[in-house]
Protein backbone atom coordinates (compact mmCIF):
# COMPACT_ATOMS: atom_id res chain seq x y z
CA UNK A 1 0.00 0.00 0.00
CA UNK A 2 1.30 3.45 -0.91
CA UNK A 3 1.79 6.27 1.57
CA UNK A 4 -1.01 8.16 -0.17
CA UNK A 5 -3.38 5.23 0.34
CA UNK A 6 -2.30 5.05 3.99
CA UNK A 7 -3.08 8.76 4.35
CA UNK A 8 -6.46 8.48 2.62
CA UNK A 9 -7.38 5.40 4.67
CA UNK A 10 -7.28 7.63 7.77
CA UNK A 11 -10.42 9.31 6.41
CA UNK A 12 -13.37 7.25 7.62
CA UNK A 13 -16.14 9.68 6.64
CA UNK A 14 -18.28 7.85 4.04
CA UNK A 15 -19.55 11.12 2.57
CA UNK A 16 -16.15 11.76 0.96
CA UNK A 17 -15.57 8.24 -0.37
CA UNK A 18 -16.13 9.35 -3.96
CA UNK A 19 -13.83 12.35 -3.47
CA UNK A 20 -11.09 10.09 -2.08
CA UNK A 21 -11.37 7.74 -5.07
CA UNK A 22 -11.44 10.59 -7.56
CA UNK A 23 -8.47 12.29 -5.88
CA UNK A 24 -6.37 9.12 -5.95
CA UNK A 25 -7.28 8.48 -9.60
CA UNK A 26 -6.40 12.04 -10.60
CA UNK A 27 -3.07 11.86 -8.75
CA UNK A 28 -2.19 8.59 -10.50
CA UNK A 29 -3.28 9.93 -13.90
CA UNK A 30 -1.27 13.10 -13.32
CA UNK A 31 1.84 11.17 -12.31
CA UNK A 32 1.52 9.12 -15.53
CA UNK A 33 1.06 12.19 -17.77
CA UNK A 34 3.68 12.99 -20.36
CA UNK A 35 3.84 16.68 -19.42
CA UNK A 36 6.51 17.40 -16.82
CA UNK A 37 4.47 20.12 -15.11
CA UNK A 38 1.46 17.83 -14.62
CA UNK A 39 3.68 15.04 -13.26
CA UNK A 40 5.40 17.43 -10.87
CA UNK A 41 2.11 18.93 -9.72
CA UNK A 42 0.65 15.48 -8.97
CA UNK A 43 3.78 14.36 -7.13
CA UNK A 44 3.87 17.53 -5.03
CA UNK A 45 0.18 17.30 -4.16
CA UNK A 46 0.61 13.65 -3.20
CA UNK A 47 3.57 14.46 -0.94
CA UNK A 48 1.84 17.44 0.67
CA UNK A 49 -1.19 15.26 1.44
CA UNK A 50 1.07 12.64 3.00
CA UNK A 51 2.85 15.37 5.00
CA UNK A 52 -0.51 16.57 6.37
CA UNK A 53 -1.45 13.01 7.35
CA UNK A 54 1.88 12.63 9.16
CA UNK A 55 1.40 16.01 10.91
CA UNK A 56 4.47 17.45 9.16
CA UNK A 57 2.32 20.21 7.62
CA UNK A 58 -0.65 22.24 8.83
CA UNK A 59 -3.76 22.95 6.80
CA UNK A 60 -2.67 26.60 6.46
CA UNK A 61 0.70 25.54 5.05
CA UNK A 62 -1.06 23.10 2.71
CA UNK A 63 -3.56 25.75 1.59
CA UNK A 64 -0.74 28.22 0.87
CA UNK A 65 1.15 25.67 -1.22
CA UNK A 66 -2.01 24.69 -3.12
CA UNK A 67 -2.84 28.34 -3.75
CA UNK A 68 0.62 28.98 -5.19
CA UNK A 69 0.44 25.78 -7.23
CA UNK A 70 -2.97 26.80 -8.60
CA UNK A 71 -1.52 30.06 -9.94
CA UNK A 72 1.25 28.15 -11.70
CA UNK A 73 -1.27 25.60 -12.98
CA UNK A 74 -3.54 28.29 -14.42
CA UNK A 75 -0.59 29.73 -16.33
CA UNK A 76 0.32 26.25 -17.57
CA UNK A 77 -3.27 25.50 -18.63
CA UNK A 78 -3.47 28.83 -20.48
CA UNK A 79 -0.31 27.95 -22.41
CA UNK A 80 -1.76 24.68 -23.73
CA UNK A 81 -3.56 24.18 -27.01
CA UNK A 82 -7.32 24.43 -26.55
CA UNK A 83 -7.86 20.66 -26.76
CA UNK A 84 -5.28 20.04 -24.04
CA UNK A 85 -6.53 22.78 -21.72
CA UNK A 86 -9.44 20.81 -20.23
CA UNK A 87 -7.25 17.79 -19.47
CA UNK A 88 -4.47 19.93 -18.02
CA UNK A 89 -6.98 21.82 -15.86
CA UNK A 90 -8.49 18.56 -14.55
CA UNK A 91 -5.09 17.11 -13.68
CA UNK A 92 -3.74 20.22 -11.97
CA UNK A 93 -6.25 22.82 -10.81
CA UNK A 94 -9.23 20.53 -10.20
CA UNK A 95 -7.10 17.96 -8.37
CA UNK A 96 -5.63 20.66 -6.11
CA UNK A 97 -9.10 22.07 -5.41
CA UNK A 98 -10.40 18.60 -4.56
CA UNK A 99 -7.54 18.08 -2.11
CA UNK A 100 -7.99 21.50 -0.51
CA UNK A 101 -11.77 21.42 -0.17
CA UNK A 102 -12.62 17.75 0.46
CA UNK A 103 -9.60 15.60 1.27
CA UNK A 104 -7.28 17.56 3.58
CA UNK A 105 -9.96 19.12 5.84
CA UNK A 106 -11.43 15.65 6.53
CA UNK A 107 -7.94 14.15 6.86
CA UNK A 108 -6.97 16.75 9.44
CA UNK A 109 -10.17 16.09 11.36
CA UNK A 110 -9.38 12.35 11.30
CA UNK A 111 -5.86 12.61 12.73
Question: Could you list some keywords that capture this structure?
Answer:
5 helices; mainly alpha; 111 residues; 82% helix
Describe this structure in words.
The chain has helices spanning 3-9, 17-32, 36-53, 59-79, 82-110. It is mainly alpha-helical and 111 residues long. It has one domain. Helix 4 (59-79) runs antiparallel to helix 5 (82-110). The protein is globular and about 40 Å long. The two termini are 19 Å apart. The model has no long low-confidence stretch (mean pLDDT 90).
Basic shape: globular
| Helicity, as a percent range | over 70%
Are there runs of 5+ residues with pLDDT below 50, and where?
none
Largest sheet: none
- The radius of gyration over CA amounts to 13 Å
> How much strand content do the residues show?
under 5%
Pattern of helices and strands: HHHHH
Brief digest:
By secondary structure, the chain is mainly alpha-helical. It contains five helices and no strands.
Record the SSE blueprint:
Layout: H1 3-9, H2 17-32, H3 36-53, H4 59-79, H5 82-110
Helix pairs in contact: 1-3, 2-3, 2-5, 3-4, 3-5, 4-5
Amino acid sequence: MSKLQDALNQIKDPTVADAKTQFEQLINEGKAASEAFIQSSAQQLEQWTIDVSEKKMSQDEFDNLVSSQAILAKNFVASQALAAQERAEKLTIKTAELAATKIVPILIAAI
